[in-house]
Amino acid sequence: MKSLIKNFIIITVVLFLVAGAVSMSEINKVDPDVIGIGTLVNEINNEEVGSIEVKGDILVVNLHDDSANVQQVKKEYGQSFSEMIDNYNIDPEKLQKIDIQVKDETGWKYWLKVLAPYMLPFLLIGGLLFFMTRQVQGVNNKAMGFGQSAAKQSKPGEEKDKKTFKDVAGAKEAKEELEEIVDFLKDPKKFTNMGAKIPKGVLLMGSPGTGKTLLAKAVAGEAGVPFFHISGSEFVEMFVGVGASRVRDLFSKAQKAAPAIIFIDEIDAVGRKRGAGLGGSHDEREQTLNQILVEMDGFNPNIGVIVIAATNRPDVLDSALLRPGRFDRRVVIDKPDINDREEILTVHAKGKPIAKDVSIRKLAERTPGFTGADLANLLNEAAILAVRRGKKKIDEIDVLESVEKVLLGPEKRSRIMTEKEKEMTAYHEAGHAIVGHFLEHCDPVRKVSIIGRGMAGGYTLSMPETDKRYQTYANFVDDLAMSMGGYVTEKMIYGDNMLSTGPSSDLKTATKIATAMVTRYGMSTKLGPRVFGENEEMIFLAQEIHDKKNYSEKIAEMIDEEVSDILKDAQRRAKEVIEVNIEKMKELVKVLLEKETVEQEEFNTIMGSGAKKEDMVKEK
């Protein structure tokens, strides 16, 4: 549309200039005196005429005495100049002295001169009508195309950023499941000869950032078939029936291009459980979901069309969507383990100048719980840090700082703190670190810092040496004691009157863990192995509104007492560790006030290389 407007403006300007030039040329000409034929005959006989131009029925006469004096004579229509001369018996000798020229007035120049004054108005009016028509047609097209699918189609060989399974690090089991889908699309007879039916739908489930969309792109790249991709939120509009219409259009296009793959990202936007939410059974989302159910396994089967969907909320999906015949294969994509993280880091390290002191394996050990997206972001942040510091390569310092930045946020060195606040922060973090170091089931302390990051004034970074799939009772109680370390230290050093708001986040986390131990994990000795309360959530809001209370008030009091006892026990254990190691804590605080940050090796040296966890506690 923009190119049409541009061309129209250019053509209009050119024609305007041409019309202007023609008009100016006509303006500059002297208006001739109109005379009769008799007068012309007398002038010829008196030898006053210098030249005559014959232009159709018009004779342009130039006299000898004044070249600027131009006369114009109109002869009879259809009569030639020679006939006119013969009729008036003009002496031929006198005519020979006159320069007579006959000009053709029927060519393009004549018509240009005639039409030029009218071209510009007609062009402007025509252009205005043209654009008004196009505008009306555009509105009609949008109205007619409102129910069409917004899915983007990628055809084999046209992908700008083609992905294959080689580009997907880790997720071995998930890739194996999807390779069968690719194999079926490439060679379906191998399966049909055995009487096997390929799954109609594959649901990719996993936490955000684990690579669900990347795997779908890899399937498209490997299969070599048309690939339609759309987000679940693109189906639904404010108008009733649009979502269902778009679903029909999407499956119709895929059926025409079969074999083909449809990828619906974030399908929980339209695939949530029915019968709840605003609008009841007539909600637009439900109509869209119903149409998806029909298209995937209705009376008109979509042969050769495979649907792949991704979600991080499989618990809210409608049961009809998950039954065999629709999404009958579910692929769970977990967070990567240490080997997968090493592979992912290796992939994302390509194209980045990594220094020799950076060990990808050690970095994988340092990042438990990180997803593929987190790891990609980590190396990107490390590259940005290296550029900011004027380095030519990404070294270990950049990488380790990026780990903390991804976990906790950027450093806030510009934050102004008084010496008293600095000392209190140092004691608080030292309390966490001391308790975490000497309790057996706490993760190793990697770093202690009094430099603020994110919302925290300081932090103690502890990470496990290996990946953990489960948490034990011993892990919970030791972690609770470590969480209480800062609170206990502030009370011991400064007294109850000077207790700050710093431990508020620790207390909130500890209370949440203790409550879960009692109500979710059956770790209460008094209440026994039972789950208390059920989460109630709005299906379409995906929010937990409150816990459904399925126990008596007496049990509620017992839960509160049990949670309180667990927290008090954690406080007691933290206090015991700190009292035994008070001198080590003061030494750590001194170093923190000097350097602001203590790394793992220096921290272990301060604690004593020969000291083992809980040895110092047992001595008491």
Concise account of the structure shown:
The chain is of the alpha/beta class. Helix content is 50%, strand content 13%. It has 22 helices and 16 strands.
What keyword list fits this structure?
620 residues, alpha/beta, Signal recognition particle alu RNA binding heterodimer, srp9/1, Rossmann fold, Helicase, Ruva Protein, domain 3, six-stranded mixed sheet, five-stranded mixed sheet, 22 helices, 50% helix, elongated, disordered C terminus
Distance between the termini: 84 Å
Which percent bin holds the helix content? Answer: 40-55%
Radius of gyration: 44 Å
Number of strands: 16
CATH class of the largest domain, anyone? Answer: Alpha Beta
Subunit arrangement of the protein: single chain
Annotated CATH topology of the largest domain: Rossmann fold
Largest β-sheet summary: 6 strands, mixed
Instruction: Give the integer mean of the pLDDT values.
Output: 78
Structural class: alpha/beta
- The best one-word shape is elongated
GO molecular function, one term: metalloendopeptidase activity
Biased composition (Basic and acidic residues): 155-168
Keywords: ATP-binding, Cell cycle, Cell division, Cell membrane, Coiled coil, Hydrolase, Membrane, Metal-binding, Metalloprotease, Nucleotide-binding, Protease, Transmembrane, Transmembrane helix, Zinc
Subunit structure: Homohexamer.
